[in-house]
Amino acid sequence: MTQVLVLVELADGALDSSTSELLAAAAQLGSPAAVIVVEPGAAAGLAAELGALGAGTVFVASREGAGSQLVTPQVAALKAAVAASGDVSAVIVSNSTDGREAGARLAIRIDAAYQSDAVGIASVNGGVVVTQQAFGGSYAVTAGTGRGIPVISLRPHSIEGAAPAAAGTVHEIDISGDTTATTEITARHEQAQASERPTLQTADIVVSGGRGLGSKEKFELVEQLADSLGAAVGASRAAVDAGYCDHNMQVGQTGVTVSPNLYIALGISGAIQHRAGMQSAKTIIAINKDADSPIFEVADFGVVGDLFTVVPQLIDAVNARRG
User: I want to staple 9 with a disulfide (CB 3.0 to 4.6 A). Which of 16, 61, 68, 291 is the partner?
Assistant: First the structure.
């Protein structure tokens, strides 16, 4: 069986939350193989974890200062893993900032096609086919991956299930000969996190509020529901422009694209700009007093009513069930 390479990102020395999903996607195409860049001596424990998540092979590139170099070592490691593997059917990276850059740069190095922000992936007649959203999320487009080894960035929460546990056999790869210039991190300034809520891009549940909340003070209702569900907080552009919340909470074409398992829209009309950033969610619930709001066109469940009446009851019900 051909190998499917997965670039593994690290967060404070631990596997990024996207790792399991990327390996599950790889398992749909072939034999998952993880590629990781670490400080010398740091690979043993991570290899065992990767094997438990489904990586039959773990390509390890050890490099001094790996934690202070941006993207370039990962690109070199992916290229070296492609050469070492010999039979690669695809390379999959996360649709994160670093993942997209690494994937695009690898595609140039190996003269391959690059598919960004895929929401589906499959093996068809011996080739790889990806599904992407187009025209603001109005259409799902399925297409082949073009020439060479396909390099694909995968949107979080696009693939269900997990890859079966595997051996996690370690293969050292040498990237010392790669002399490509890289950006060095000279200092880190940690900023205390404002809350313990999950981030928008990776959250399983997102609760978003729109202009229907009416004010910054009333937007707290969105936060209260999110906290009761352990969810991330999002917002429409209209809510951000009105000053109800910070810009980094904006979901939509000019904000963050999310694909959670559950998306709850409170007082959001559902303009195409907003729907482009959230309609790939597995389940969408909309609460709005206007029955003709476009958000109901993409919602799986809709409540036509005053959100200031409905949402407090929903919070009480959630808290009662959890308690």
Answer: 16
Which of 36-45, 129-138, 151-160, 262-271 is predicted with the least confidence, judged by mean pLDDT?
129-138
Mean pLDDT for the chain overall: 92
Which amino acid, 77? A
CB 207 within 8 Å of CB 200? no
CA angle 96, 125, 24 (to 5 degrees): 35
Return d(Cα 80, Cα 173) in angstroms, integer. 7
Mean pLDDT of 226-230: 95
CA distances from 125 to 122, 129, 144, 145, 239 (A): 10, 10, 11, 13, 47
Domains of the chain: 3-184 (3.40.50.620), 205-322 (3.40.50.1220)
* Cα 89 to Cα 130: distance, rounded to the nearest angstrom: 13
Token readout for 294 is 């476009």
Of 135, 146, 128, 263, nearest in space to 209 by CA: 263
Where do we find the tokens 């072939």? 30
CB 15 within 8 A of CB 38: no
Residue type, 297: E
Are 244 and 213 within 8 A, CB to CB? yes
CA distance 141 to 129: 10
Q: Which residues pair with 125 in a beta bridge?
A: none
Cβ 258 vs Cβ 200: under 8 Å: yes
Q: Which two tokens stand for residue 195?
A: 């809350």
| pLDDT tops 60 at residue 192 | no
On whether the pTM is more than 0.85, the answer is no
**303 pLDDT above the threshold of 70:** yes
